Amino acid sequence: MQPVKVGLMGLGTVGGGTVSVLSRNAEVIARRAGRGIHISHAAAKAYNAAAITGLDQIEKITDDAFAVVNDPEIEIVVELIGGYHPALELVMQAIANGKHVVTANKALIALHGNEIFAAAQKQGITVAFEAAVAGGIPIIKALREGLAANRIEWAAGIINGTSNYILTEMRTKGRDFKPVLKEAQALGYAEADPAFDIEGIDAAHKLTILGSIAFGIPLQFDKTYIEGIVRIDRQDVAYAEELGYRIKHLGITRNTGRGIEMRVHPTLIPKRRLIANVDGVMNAVLVKGDAVGHTLYYGAGAGSFPTASAVVADLIDITRALTTDPENRVPHLAFQPHAMADTRVLPMEEVETAYYLRMQAVDRPGVLALVTKILGDRGISIEAIIQKEPGEEVKYVPIIILTQRIQERNMNEAIALIEKLDVIKGHVTRIRVETLE
User: Fold this and answer.
1) Which of 162, 249, 285, 320 is the most exposed place for a label (fewest CB within 10 A)?
2) 106, 206, 248, 288: the active-site residue
3) Catalytic residue check, 388
4) Distance (Å, rounded) from C-alpha 310 to C-alpha 145?
């Protein structure tokens, strides 16, 4: 049987890795797919030829991506350009041309996936995107297929390696945020403009996809709550450790019965949890299903070969299914298109969680009583309090409070009133707490 002809757009980190993996593992890939998979046409503005094994096996390399999607011999198009435009136009053109698509573009899927999948469904086309979430970890396949018998209750993940690296360095070496961020940029873990990583946008793109697959709802990036790690102080990391917790930047999605939670934010989790011990640039996703219980997926969330591993796995899946009736293929978002639910995504103020609070208070009697009264009046129970001894000639001392679970709306009201007290200096630092039980 003739090899499947693939068109590749983008020969950067992931694109180069994809070419190399297809080249060096060609025999085993053909045995698994049932036929060879060959990149015959590629497009890239620039690339490092010396770093890519198998580049010489590509018949045609151009700088025109539309020439790839319009090539009549190409059966599968791989989009590794990234961003929204022209990626969206290229993918939609490929679908219109009857070509299957593989992409690692989480931003594209999170914001335009509903439109893309509707077009693909109409054309009987598969759009595969395993590499869009958690790099080499096969979390999309696990949720969509491996756990298909389960009613998913919740999923929580460390799905941005840059943020995890920064928080790990702050905890293990007692370093401040800014110098660790600069080091992450120097090491290539963070971009020159790191906003997507440290502000939580990258993780929110991925969580939007996970939540849709887990609960059978349309992709709704605009309803995902996003909070980054830029306000995390090394003293918060130390206090969390003292209380038996670690701070991780988590994406959390949960079906509460009242609606779906979709939120990305720094989170205190107990040190005993396996996911609390995932350090450096590694990713991990913890999923709770009603039948299987807890399952944990761990591995490299980015990088040339780990991400290429997911891209090539998608190519193999599509190759296996080329002759399959389109109506019998695995649905893009796990649920059949006509069976998608309109379950509401909860606004953040309706989410219920526990909280870590840190404030700077005047060192005099009665201050703590004022704070606890405000919390008590709003039904907020206290789990633990740490009040540090003042140093010499120190006017303000830190107070750390761990609360029990309460609706975010109540906590917002309490924090606003605490910050108005003349005995409290500046803002109250608030980090949400999850036990992941």
Assistant:
1) 320
2) 206
3) no
4) 15
